[in-house]
Amino acid sequence: MSRTDDSVMGTVTTKVPARLDRLPWSRWHWMIVIGLGTVWILDGLEVTIVGNMAGRLSEEGSGLPISDAQVTGVAAALYVAGACSGALFFGWLTDRFGRRKLFLITLAVYLLATALTALSTSVWWFFLFRFLTGFGIGGEYAAINSAIDELIPSKYRGRVDLIINGSYWLGAMGGALLSVAALDTDFFPMDVGWRLSFALGVVLGLVILVVRRHVPESPRWMFIHGRSEGAEELVAAVERQVEREKGVTLPEPSRAITIEQRHSIGFIEIARTLFHTYPKRAVLGFALFIGQAFLYNAITFGFGSILVKFFDVPTGYTGYYFAVIAFGNFLGPLLLGRLFDTVGRRPMIAGTYILSGLLLFGTAWLFDRGSLDATTMTLCWCVVLFFASAGASSAYLTVSEIFPMETRAMAIAFFYAIGTAAGGISGPLLFAQLTESGVVGDAVLAFCVGATLMVLAGLVALFFAVAAEGRSLEDIATPLSARAADEDGAPPAARVGR
User: Fold this and answer.
1) Quick one: which H or E segment has residue 13?
2) Where are the alpha helices (DSSP H) in 316-425?
3) What is the mean pLDDT of residues 391-401?
4) Contact between 259 and 226 (Cβ < 8 Å)
5) Residues 6 or more apart in contact with residue 172 via CB below 8 angstroms
6) Closest Cα partner for 46 from 289, 293, 297?
7) Residue 305 contacts residue 72 (beta carbons within 8 Å)
8) CA 27/CA 245 separation, integer angstroms
């Protein structure tokens, strides 16, 4: 779609962004967090179940004629490829048709694909529905992160975004423990346990779908797309609810912005905005996503195989080790998230990436020397991923807040898809081959590649990260639809440097 396809619908002056940003934390915000954030738990559940069950799925009698390398390599890569495709497809629809419609549709896609994965009887069936499961999850990334950042007050945006993205690891922890029970043949036959694990994901998804139906559309998206009256009414209702809950009268915001409403933004203008108007921010987005995608998709997809091949951990016990790692991952965003709003984006993003990369180099060195056993390897990973998970979550926060609102979902989708394709598709395929060899030096090589990319991404953040903490989204990146001046004659938002 070209720039000439955009249709201007009228001009409106609104204080909706300022009104949303000055709200105190309330039960309404908790509803947003629960309704939208819980999908990452499902993603963590999905990936962990497959990773920890790789050994069982490849055993004779599982009901699925598949090898360990196919599970951790081909199936993992197809899941990520589906996520990249889904992010781009649904990201475009999210910017065009709204956040709410798409985060309902993408969850429905996930539910159907996961249910059909549980019914797999052949390798091609399993591969197909792993791809489609990723397709739904990828769409969730674009729709959910857009909605979260546009609904959460600027004061809390960093920590909330990080904790929500970090909740992936609660799902990972649950998936790890679930796999222990599912792999126990005293409880379930070999060809049944892994199917029930996928079925549980469907049940959780249905619960989330019920909760999510009460999450509203983004008022910011509404007033740009010709629904300004609905946006004003929605924000007014939230304000009344917050005032009753807190027993205070909210101050009147003074800041307004004037917008030329239009149906959509063309691909050419989106590309021009990302790469011509904000080239340094584009480089930052690529670096952050490639670094974290390779580290996580290459290493954690195959962690169960590492325990089995190098430390002789029984297949049925790998879940215990991964649950510990998952807990450490969740603690990172939970405990460090507040610092991204107080200490600042630049030092925290750069610091978490560089430190996690250096710690991973240290872990690779110890592993190569033979100084680690299954327990100490797990502890080293906990320390590495405590910092890496906060950094990885900040990648989603960064690309969702540093580009104009009209391009937000597509920006998330684009950088997620390109970065994850580079590290998340090639990573599992490469790592599956390296761990399959059973040679310590091959696994060390994979660790070092992931560590190098994390350090390099941290250095890019040190120079290019934007000081977005506590600032309105409209101040960080002026909406493309903004007029030159608001109702008071002041600039609607300060267009910051590239």
Assistant:
1) strand 8-14
2) 318-342, 345-369, 374-401, 408-420
3) 92
4) no
5) 44, 45, 47, 48, 322, 325, 326, 329
6) 297
7) yes
8) 8
Torsion over CA: 439, 441, 444, 450 (sign): negative
End-to-end CA distance of the chain: 25
Maximal CA-CA distance, the chain: 73
Q: Angle, to 10 degrees, between the axis of helix 76-97 and the axis of helix 408-420?
A: 170
Q: How many residues does the chain have?
A: 498
Strand partners for 257? 14
Cα 492 from chain centroid (whole Å): 30
- Choice between 187 and 487, residue whose per-residue pLDDT is larger: 187
Mind listing the pLDDT tens digit for each residue in 95-116?
888 888 888 888 889 889 888 8
What does the pLDDT read at residue 3? 40
**Cβ neighbours of 491 (radius 10 Å):** 13
Cα dist from 28 to 20, 35, 103, whole Å: 12, 11, 18
One-character DSSP codes across 219-283: HHHHHHTT-HHHHHHHHHHHHHHHHHHHTSPPPPP---EEEEEES---HHHHHHIIIIISHHHHH
Secondary structure class of 65 (helix, strand, coil): coil
Q: DSSP readout, 137-181?
A: HHHHHHHHHHHHHHHS-TTTHHHHHHHHHHTHHHHHHHHHHHHHH
**Alpha carbons 79 and 299: distance in angstroms, whole number:** 15
- Structure tokens given for 233: 């009414």
Find, among 83, 484, 8, the residue nearest to 266 by Cα.
8
Q: What is the pTM of this model?
A: 0.82
pLDDT, mean of residues 436-446: 78
Which of these, 142, 129, 7, lies nearest to 87 by C-alpha position? 142
Q: Are 410 and 178 in contact (CB under 8 A)?
A: no
Q: Round to whole Å and give the CA distance between 448 and 408.
A: 33
Residue with tokens 């070092």: 448
Any alpha helices (H) in 53-75, and if so which ranges? Answer: 54-57, 68-69
Nearest to 288 by CA among 378, 357, 362: 357
